[in-house]
Amino acid sequence: MTVKRDATFLDLFIEVTKAITASLDLDEVFNLITRKIPEIIDVDAATIRLLDAAGEKLELRAAHGLSEAYLNRGTIDTEQPIFKALSGEPIVIADALQDPRINYPEATRKEGIRTILVVPIPIRGRISGILRLLTKTPRTYTRDEIDFVTALGEQCGIAIENARIFKEQQVQLDYFKAIHEIGKQINATYELGTILDLIVTRLPAVMGLKAATIRLIEENKGKLALKAAHGLSQTYLQRGPLDDELATYYIKEGEPVVIPDARKDIHTLYHAEAKAEGIRSILAVPIAVQGEIIGILRLLTEDVRYFSTVDINFAMAVAEQSGIAIQRALDYPRLQ
Question: What is the Cα–Cα distance from 132 to 120, expressed in whole angstroms?
């Protein structure tokens, strides 16, 4: 048996579990897994790949013991062993240099990879990624060893989920603080421009966005007019009106709209302009006062982002506060 002979599988299992659950920082958990498991299992390298938010593509999240050239060789999503691992079946590639299922045989040869063990990583009962263990010398795995590494894959899923939950809680706390701070700032002035600029500059910083815009519905025309923007070029801002976008229709009905890819989504126009500006995802929420929609807050990213329920609720809460402050600023001159 190749696994350390001076310890039982249970001892090793406990050792690895303690190591990978010692942190609640998600990136640190990834790195702990890829460092600790090769040390215990006596392999040369390890990688973790997780499915993206759409569940369509595997994204490399951590690696240990491999060159950048090998890690950047290209996608492995179409490899047959990956399909099987994502269906819940551990796979052993006994000779990576000769196996026809490997997509990049030349890169594999240059890296000196001989064997690969691929096990699924389940999170919340669904296969959400894969753990790959690689050696640079010939290696065989017993059934017990495969079962052991598969069990470690399950523990990896638990550790990753715990770290994700902790991160979400931290985000919620940050959003709670931000709502309080933004509320204080926008309610401390009657100057409309100051209120709008504060919102579009503060939200990208808090939420990790590329840009933000606010459009208000003109009182007489009923059309959307751009009132504030941050992080966008004049060329993009002047691309044309948004009144005929399908997204605008839903927002005027009081619904938030998430657009995963603004370069092709049917809810938006100006796909070419979005691509040229480097915009991928958009979260758009209504700005309302006493049930009446007075404008739209749009939040834009440069990478594809599937906004969470926490993100959407935060944006809606800020939009609600903003609506009150905006209406107060609009009414103030009339009361003088």
Answer: 9
Identity of the amino acid at 98: Q
> What is the H or E stretch that residue 63 is in?
strand 58-64
Annotated domain spans of the chain = 9-164, 187-335
Write out the DSSP string of 128-166: EEEEEEEESS-----HHHHHHHHHHHHHHHHHHHHHHHH
Q: 201 Cβ partners below 8 Å, 6+ apart?
A: 212, 230
User: Would you state the CATH architecture of domain 9-164?
Assistant: 2-Layer Sandwich (3.30)
Q: Is it the case that residue 131 has pLDDT exceeding 90? A: yes
- Pick the closest to residue 142 from 3, 14, 8 (CA basis): 3
- What does DSSP assign to residue 4? -
- The packing angle between helices 143-186 and 309-335, to 10°, is 10
Render pLDDT for 277-317 as a digit per residue (tens, 0 to 9). 999 999 999 999 988 999 999 999 999 898 999 999 999 99
Longest dimension (CA), the chain: 86
The predicted model scores a pTM of 0.71
Q: Quickly list DSSP for 186-236.
A: HTT---HHHHHHHHHHHHHHHHT-SEEEEEEE-TTT--EEEEEEES--HHH
Question: What's the CATH number for 187-335?
Answer: 3.30.450.40
Q: What pLDDT shows up at residue 5?
A: 45
Whether residue 330 has pLDDT greater than 80? yes
Torsion-angle region of 267 (φ positive above 0: left; ψ -120 to 50: alpha; else: beta): alpha
For residue 24, give both structure tokens.
Answer: 């609640």
pLDDT at 289: 93
Confidence of residue 11 (pLDDT cuts 50, 70, 90): low
Identical fold, 9-164 and 187-335: yes
Amino acid at residue number 165 = I
pLDDT exceeds cutoff 50 at 6:
no
